[in-house]
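Regression test case RT-17, inverse folding.

Input:
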Protein backbone atom coordinates (compact mmCIF):
# COMPACT_ATOMS: atom_id res chain seq x y z
CA UNK A 1 0.00 0.00 0.00
CA UNK A 2 1.43 3.37 -1.00
CA UNK A 3 0.78 6.32 1.30
CA UNK A 4 0.76 9.75 -0.35
CA UNK A 5 0.82 13.00 1.61
CA UNK A 6 1.36 16.59 0.57
CA UNK A 7 2.26 19.91 2.14
CA UNK A 8 3.60 23.29 1.16
CA UNK A 9 5.30 26.37 2.47
CA UNK A 10 4.38 29.77 1.10
CA UNK A 11 7.59 31.57 0.18
CA UNK A 12 9.08 33.56 -2.64
CA UNK A 13 12.28 31.55 -2.13
CA UNK A 14 10.81 28.19 -3.13
CA UNK A 15 13.18 27.65 -6.05
CA UNK A 16 16.20 28.41 -3.88
CA UNK A 17 15.05 26.03 -1.16
CA UNK A 18 14.33 23.33 -3.74
CA UNK A 19 17.86 23.67 -5.12
CA UNK A 20 19.48 23.61 -1.66
CA UNK A 21 17.42 20.66 -0.42
CA UNK A 22 18.00 18.60 -3.56
CA UNK A 23 21.75 19.33 -3.63
CA UNK A 24 21.99 18.37 0.03
CA UNK A 25 20.06 15.11 -0.36
CA UNK A 26 22.00 14.23 -3.54
CA UNK A 27 25.13 13.74 -1.44
CA UNK A 28 23.68 10.51 -0.06
CA UNK A 29 20.68 9.40 -2.11
CA UNK A 30 19.52 9.46 -5.75
CA UNK A 31 18.04 12.86 -6.61
CA UNK A 32 16.96 14.40 -9.89
CA UNK A 33 15.99 18.05 -10.08
CA UNK A 34 15.52 21.10 -12.23
CA UNK A 35 14.83 24.72 -11.35
CA UNK A 36 11.20 24.00 -10.45
CA UNK A 37 10.91 20.24 -9.75
CA UNK A 38 12.80 17.53 -7.92
CA UNK A 39 12.51 13.91 -6.84
CA UNK A 40 14.54 12.34 -4.03
CA UNK A 41 14.54 8.55 -3.52
CA UNK A 42 14.93 7.53 0.15
CA UNK A 43 15.93 4.13 1.49
CA UNK A 44 18.02 1.33 0.07
CA UNK A 45 17.31 -0.50 -3.21
CA UNK A 46 16.43 -3.65 -1.28
CA UNK A 47 14.27 -1.67 1.20
CA UNK A 48 12.96 1.59 -0.27
CA UNK A 49 11.19 4.01 2.09
CA UNK A 50 9.71 6.15 -0.64
CA UNK A 51 10.27 9.39 -2.43
CA UNK A 52 9.76 13.09 -1.92
CA UNK A 53 8.71 15.23 -4.85
CA UNK A 54 9.43 18.97 -4.78
CA UNK A 55 7.65 21.58 -6.89
CA UNK A 56 8.49 25.27 -6.66
CA UNK A 57 7.01 28.39 -8.20
CA UNK A 58 7.19 32.12 -7.44
CA UNK A 59 4.90 31.80 -4.39
CA UNK A 60 5.43 28.40 -2.75
CA UNK A 61 7.37 25.19 -2.40
CA UNK A 62 5.22 22.04 -2.42
CA UNK A 63 6.23 18.61 -1.14
CA UNK A 64 4.62 15.29 -2.00
CA UNK A 65 5.68 12.21 -0.05
CA UNK A 66 5.07 8.79 -1.61
CA UNK A 67 5.93 6.16 0.98
CA UNK A 68 5.65 2.41 1.40
CA UNK A 69 3.56 2.74 4.60
CA UNK A 70 2.41 5.19 7.30
CA UNK A 71 5.61 4.88 9.34
CA UNK A 72 7.78 5.58 6.31
CA UNK A 73 5.58 8.57 5.40
CA UNK A 74 6.02 10.05 8.87
CA UNK A 75 9.76 9.46 8.68
CA UNK A 76 10.04 11.22 5.31
CA UNK A 77 7.85 14.09 6.52
CA UNK A 78 10.18 14.55 9.50
CA UNK A 79 13.23 14.56 7.23
CA UNK A 80 11.69 17.24 5.02
CA UNK A 81 10.67 19.37 8.01
CA UNK A 82 14.05 19.17 9.75
CA UNK A 83 16.01 20.00 6.61
CA UNK A 84 13.62 22.80 5.68
CA UNK A 85 14.11 24.24 9.16
CA UNK A 86 17.86 24.33 8.58
CA UNK A 87 17.44 26.06 5.22
CA UNK A 88 14.87 28.60 6.41
CA UNK A 89 16.14 29.01 9.95
CA UNK A 90 12.46 28.85 10.89
CA UNK A 91 11.31 28.58 14.47
CA UNK A 92 8.40 26.27 13.67
CA UNK A 93 9.25 23.90 10.81
CA UNK A 94 6.08 21.81 11.19
CA UNK A 95 4.17 21.51 7.96
CA UNK A 96 0.47 20.77 7.60
CA UNK A 97 0.57 17.38 5.85
CA UNK A 98 -2.59 16.27 4.03
CA UNK A 99 -3.30 12.67 3.04
CA UNK A 100 -3.93 12.29 -0.67
CA UNK A 101 -4.73 8.58 -0.53
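Golden output:
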Amino acid sequence: MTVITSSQVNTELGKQYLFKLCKHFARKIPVEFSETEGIAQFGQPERPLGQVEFNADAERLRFTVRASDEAAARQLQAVVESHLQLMRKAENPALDWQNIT
